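Checklist before submission:
- one chain only
- standard amino acids only
- sequence pasted in full

Submission:
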Amino acid sequence: LGRLPKSILDTLSKYVSEISASAGGMGFSVKLKKTASARRALADGLFKLKDTVLILDEIQSINQGISHFLRALGSVFNENHSLLVIFTGSYSGIVRKLFESTYKDALFGRPPISIKLAPWKETVAEEFLKTGFEKLKVHYEEWEIRDAVNQLGTLPGWLNLYGVKRYIERDHETAMKTTIEEAVKEAEKELEHLLEGRSPKAKEVIRLLAFGASWSDMAQTGISEDALSRLLTILVDGLFIVEKDENTGVYYFTDPVYRKAAMKLPLVTKTKTAI
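Returned file contents:
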């Protein structure tokens, strides 16, 4: 609501008790009346937008009120055809929830389009970094580019993060250190999102994949075949971070950042009670 134009916020007087400019002038701080419906206030505000693109970045980070949010957005999305909504984020979070919903849901009056960014080839990843540095006039060595790709893999998100850090820090080693720290933390959150609502055995499977594991290795955790199949489908086809070696039958993380994050996931330990 705080990102809506002031002219639209002024029309929501039956919901809003206070409007004040936020720090830096980037939007407004909105306080709703105690009896107001946040979902209805959001829907009414979005209904009034004309020829607008609404970008919801890192949407998987929403932890509360997802169902209310989607109902509000769905009703507006179907009726306000001049509103275009773009979700960006992980397939394992709320974006997956959107695309796994049935077509009976309100949001599917206008079917969404999914655009997935798969890992690049190493040559493309290296060229991406070089092009960015040259445009920003950042001096770099060839070994730094290779080192970045080796340590971060070729997912566009991690490379983009490194590029920004490298521009700010002006030092490869410092940029790599901060990039890896932030990327691994983000990857941990993504894996936790993926594991929400799943059996604790799924976490054991993720840990095994950090070292490479066959189907039989993963099945020994006690996870059901159906649950294991669904988990691997998301990791392989949804997130593009796991591959299967057809010669050995071993599944493994192809992305080094997610591999590090998987190794840090805590496992539930069983304790014995002395009698």
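Reviewer check: Residues 116 and 238 are 8 Å apart (CA to CA).
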